[in-house]
Amino acid sequence: MIKSWFSYILGIDLQNEVLVVFQTTYGREDHERQDILTCHIHPTQLDRFSLTVLKKDATKVNGQGDIITTTQFIKDGEIIVSSGGTFELGFFSSGETSTNRYVGIWYKKPSVITPVWVANRVAPVTNKSGVLKVIQSGLVVLVNDTNATVWSTNSSTTVQNPVALLLDTGNFVVRDVDDPNPENFLGQSFDYPSNTLLAGMKLGTDLETELERYLSSWRSNDDPAPGEYTYHCDPTGYPQDLMRKRPNVTFRAGPWNGLRWSGAPNMVNNSIIYFGLIMNSREINYNYKLVNKSVISTLVIKPFGKTMRIIWIEKTQSWFNYHSADADYCDTYKLLLRKPNKRIEPWTEPLHRPQRNKVELNRNRKLRPKAVDDPR
Prior knowledge:
The chain has one helix spanning 43-47; strands spanning 2-13, 18-27, 32-40, 54-55, 60-61, 67-68, 74-75, 78-81, 87-93, 101-107, 112-113, 117-118, 131-134, 140-143, 149-152, 162-166, 172-176, 187-188, 196-197, 203-206, 212-213, 215-220, 223-234, 240-245, 248-252, 273-279, 283-290, 297-301, 307-313, 318-324. It is mainly beta. The strands form eight sheets. The protein has a five-stranded mixed β-sheet, with no helix packed on it. Strands 6-16-17-18 form a four-stranded antiparallel β-sheet, with no helix packed on it. It has a four-stranded antiparallel β-sheet with strand order 7-13-14-15, with no helix packed on it. The longest helix has 5 residues, at 43-47. The chain is globular, with a radius of gyration of 21 Å. Residues 1-11, 14-50, 327-331 and 333-374 have low confidence and may be disordered. It comes from Nicotiana tabacum (Common tobacco). This is G-type lectin S-receptor-like serine/threonine-protein kinase At4g27290.
């Protein structure tokens, strides 16, 4: 009888839709068998995972390209495109029958919209009157047909000529038009993720500012408001990735051992991604990069509490889930949990939110293992 198994991707042939999989199987008496498998991706494998995919509206590219200024803004029905043509930013509805409109970022190439970041998650515009603009104080604001502010960023710093730019990494940044230094950004979407971790984003904590960057699931596939599940890189002791359902931990990836998470043997570097952990006096965070720049792949947390690495398959025009953080049912942490008495309220502004956890800078610092090099 098979007790457990895990597998991970060694390589992928996008042209022929073939995955090369390394699989390890453990028997009842802990006998181990390892196989190299070649698997053809079938459309049924792509469709069985519920992902938020929306048909693209008829949109026009705004004339200013990748930038929003105090005099150039975007209306509902318009988009801006990053300089390399990788990402788009515009308005979308979260369901076929919904009239709620959200500002989001998504990959340009796929034929369907799968938002990787949503600005006004808890404050939708109820019709197509929304306008996104930059005001002189250096804030990005979303207004409705009465010119009332529905959503805005927040910054205590001002600059002479503020602009908002969509970078080809998928990062939406606010800065002075003449100052590209990231250290001087007034704000950036990478500091306040939604449910998706893109290549180059950080999952973890800035030890100097105590800003924690973490993922939060959608409330449902049709509602981008923050849901019950969050995914974190816990900086205390030996750092590890973990999933929470409200305040309760439901999954742990195991402490970082210098190469990978010790409790998640299926989370390894491969021909698609390379990841690592950064640990120093300023920050502790997990991040990854794409080995093959032509591959479209993200890490996403779903409303039902699974964290998946998904890849876009052009031939079938669908997303394929080839890896989940919690590989099997036995990985669920503390299956029997008491119902929490208090709900953690989600934040509403993407570039400013209260800190949920303070980091004890000196706690167990001597026990932390040495980190690998920054994968970027």
